[in-house]
Design a protein that fits this description.
single chain, about 80 residues, alpha+beta, Nuclear Transport Factor 2, Chain: A, 4-stranded antiparallel sheet, 1 helix, about 15% helix
Length: about 80
């Protein structure tokens, strides 16, 4: 079994009730192994204000990969 722990999140709202969340997370295995990664998720708010996630992508927490993705987004 893998346990996920959210270390830090940032969120931006857009449209009528949509959001994008960027989070630093850690996966912890039963054997004690840890894997830190960045999660980028898109979702929406339900009428009661609860978040509902639609899709997500996990990015390895490696500086060169984070820098590459950030640079490509800025150039698009």
């Amino acid at each position: 079994m893998v346990e996920f722990k959210t270390l830090k999140t940032k969120e931006v709202k857009f449209g009528r009730n949509n959001f994008i969340e960027v989070a630093r997370k850690k996966a912890l295995t039963e054997t004690g192994e840890e894997n830190e990664f960045i999660s980028v998720s898109r979702g929406f708010f339900l009428p009661d204000g609860t978040k509902k996630f639609k899709r997500s992508i996990a990015i390895p927490n490696q500086k060169e990969i984070r820098d590459f993705i950030a640079e490509q987004i800025k150039e698009l």
